[in-house]
Amino acid sequence: MSVFSTLDLVLEGLMRRYRERVPDVQRVFDTMMAEGMITDPLEIENDHIAFRSLGVPFLGISSLEKIFLALGYVKRDYYYFPEKKLDAYWYAPPAPSYPRIFLSQLRVQDLSPRAQEIIAHYTKDIHADPTDQLDLKDGVALDAFLHSGLWPLPTLSDHETLAAESEYAAWVIYNRYYLNHFTVSVHNLPEGYNTIAAFNRCLIAHGFRLNDAGGQIKQSPDGLLLQSSTVAGLIEACFAGGEKKSIAGSYVEFAERKVLPAYAHLPVAAIGRFHRREGFEAANADKIFESTYRSQTALDS
């Protein structure tokens, strides 16, 4: 099986489960079709997908990235989020038709002793990198791994203790590697919908709640990368011992990458991914992370 065939299997598995678990995904697709932006969701360009992880031995970015590096991705820029205590990298795809990857991890060593103790309790039985046991050419095995539980279900008490200090930590300890979000490239949509501002107006008119941390539109200093996102929908989480509570699941992101000044003279039909603003912006991502936070989901603290 070729690398591309394996990657296709992995991405299909991720998106299938993501659509099943996040009702807003299908709602976004239905809205786009109802407005005539697309006739089929397969027409949507996926700008990037993102995963969250724990920065502990044998896990985190150094483990998870092995899957995507084996599938042809190239590691690019590093990002640091001091307030949220996170590290991140993005990865360029092996071909323009594939999404970028954004991997982040919690800097567990920067948390309080109590939070570190909770995370260590759940990950203590992981004594080797689990990706080293995988056949990185087996798309079915990789898909199964990305939807498996690498540690036991947390108790509700532990989840809430983590959430009080790091909502990112609480999200990961329950959701593991489930796809955190996928991203619609709005710049390739028909005129009238191909800017973040116009696309947001359409979503709001159809009843979507958007993340307003730092404003509904997050814009890079150069003005060439604009992003927005829905607020994460709630899922009924079943914790260890059978306790249940609604917590934040995943969300949908939207990105507009403007044409670089050097290519502004090109006709629209000639513009490809290479001609647009590449990479990410830490300040934008910092606020997008909050799509799962209680300040956005309105969950009781």
Account of the protein in words:
The chain is of the alpha+beta class. It has a single domain, classed as 2,3-Dihydroxybiphenyl 1,2-Dioxygenase, domain 1, CATH 3.10.180.50. It has ten helices and ten strands. It has an eight-stranded mixed β-sheet with strand order 2-3-4-1-5-10-7-6, with helices on both faces. A two-stranded antiparallel sheet has the order 8-9.
Task: For the structure shown, list the relevant keywords.
301 residues; alpha+beta; 2,3-Dihydroxybiphenyl 1,2-Dioxygenase, domain 1; 8-stranded mixed β-sheet; two-stranded antiparallel sheet; 10 helices; 33% helix; globular
Just name the CATH architecture. Answer: Roll
The helix-and-strand class reads: alpha+beta
Described by the principal axes of the CA atoms, the overall outline is globular
Beta-strand fraction estimate? 15-25%
How many DSSP helices?
10
User: What is the number of domains?
Assistant: 1
Name of the level-1 CATH class: Alpha Beta
> What fold name stands as the CATH topology?
2,3-Dihydroxybiphenyl 1,2-Dioxygenase, domain 1
The largest pleated sheet is described as: 8 strands, mixed
Entry summary:
By secondary structure, the protein is α+β, with helices and mostly antiparallel strands. The protein has 10 helices and 10 strands. 33% of the residues lie in helices and 20% in strands.
